[in-house]
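Whiteboard transcription, Tuesday session. T.W. wrote the structure tokens on the left side:
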């Protein structure tokens, strides 16, 4: 972990995983042009101009990788965590998806200055679900992303409230979808009732210390139809389908996207200044409760105001089920992973016997691999049913 000195050159890097992001790439890369280095973990199955566009930006580094069986959220998280662990010359690391645009509570303020000034180890961001409004024009990649899509869902409970910025070098892993982390053995999310523990570990737990921003949920009707069907729904791995990961994308259809657009096309403005009280006088169990306590976050929508005595469904503070699956691999596990990847290639080619032999070898190297065990069972079942 680098020591940050007052007036020193603070270095911030960013990790993001992409597949077919040619449309969003210029909006994202222009928005984060201030970041010292952007690490794009690029799905090797990408077949559009994503890489060509991204390499026009001097601060971009592209690393290609191959999923063994299309989109697998557990492997995605593990790859992000491996990359985070490998960054040793930055002070902070941002982890966001291609459709997520961070900002300060006062939109004109500098995200970098906020991170440095507050000096936290981990920052949560409230990312509003943003929709194309019926009166908004077509997107222009030469203009600010945030200024072109201002409307969205005003319900705080529907926001993506995610840990998006971490000091480099922490004992930490991101979970599935980057919605939560395990930091120093503690599970932390917007719904874990352990704000006291988070605060002691220098995590942003009050709105004034947090960031906000936009999750472009439905930024352009035609693009999002392609994004959710061909680029997401059609590419779910057997693991995702069996474990219900990214379940909202399993059966996405054009009709669903159109219905959602029509339902949300007259949404109110949600991307706006939200000047919070700079106070630690919140006595709330979870970050979500702290957001509802802050008027500028809760005032826009009546469902943000819960009757006295109403409680939320909190998440457990225990280590989550995904914890072991998203850890960076040891050298032995990495060898097992290469064997697993080759086994999946044989399975795709219809050579099940070779795939079974390799999966058994992979399990011998890494007996705890749930992926190897799952696919071995799948292929054996296929063999019995052929």
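and on the right, the sequence the group agreed on:
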């Amino acid at each position: 972990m680098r020591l940050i000195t007052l007036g020193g050159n603070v270095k911030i890097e960013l990790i993001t995983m992409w597949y077919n992001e040619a449309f969003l790439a210029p909006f994202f890369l222009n928005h984060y042009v201030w970041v010292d280095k952007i690490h794009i973990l690029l799905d090797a199955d990408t077949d559009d101009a994503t890489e060509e566009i991204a390499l026009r930006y001097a601060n971009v580094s592209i690393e290609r990788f191959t999923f063994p069986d299309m989109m697998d959220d557990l492997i995605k998280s593990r790859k992000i965590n491996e990359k985070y662990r490998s960054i040793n010359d930055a002070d902070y690391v941002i982890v966001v998806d291609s459709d997520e645009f961070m900002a300060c509570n006062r939109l004109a303020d500098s995200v970098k200055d906020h991170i440095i000034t507050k000096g936290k180890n981990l920052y949560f961001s409230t990312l509003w679900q943003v929709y194309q409004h019926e009166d908004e024009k077509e997107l222009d990649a030469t203009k600010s992303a945030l200024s072109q899509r201002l409307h969205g869902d005003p319900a705080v409970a529907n926001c993506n409230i995610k840990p998006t910025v971490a000091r480099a070098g922490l004992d930490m892993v991101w979970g599935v979808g980057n919605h939560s982390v395990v930091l120093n053995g503690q599970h932390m999310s917007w719904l874990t009732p352990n704000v006291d523990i988070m605060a002691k570990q220098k995590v942003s737990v009050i709105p004034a210390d947090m960031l906000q921003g936009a999750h472009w949920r439905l930024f352009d009707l035609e693009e999002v139809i392609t994004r959710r069907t061909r680029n997401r729904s059609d590419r779910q791995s057997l693991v995702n389908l069996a474990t219900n990961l990214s379940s909202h994308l399993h059966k996405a259809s054009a009709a669903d996207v159109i219905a959602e657009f029509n339902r949300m096309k007259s949404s109110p403005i949600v991307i706006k200044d939200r000047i919070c009280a700079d106070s630690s006088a919140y006595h709330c169990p979870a970050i979500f409760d702290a957001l509802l306590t802050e008027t500028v976050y809760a005032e826009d929508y009546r469902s943000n105001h819960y009757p006295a005595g109403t409680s939320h469904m909190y998440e457990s503070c225990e280590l989550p089920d995904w914890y072991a699956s998203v850890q960076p691999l040891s050298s032995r596990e990495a060898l097992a992973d290469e064997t697993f990847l080759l086994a999946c290639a044989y399975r795709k080619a219809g050579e099940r016997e070779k795939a079974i032999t390799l999966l058994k070898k992979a399990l011998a190297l890494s007996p705890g691999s749930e992926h190897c065990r799952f696919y071995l069972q799948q292929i054996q079942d296929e063999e019995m049913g052929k």
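Someone added at the bottom: The radius of gyration is 21 Å.
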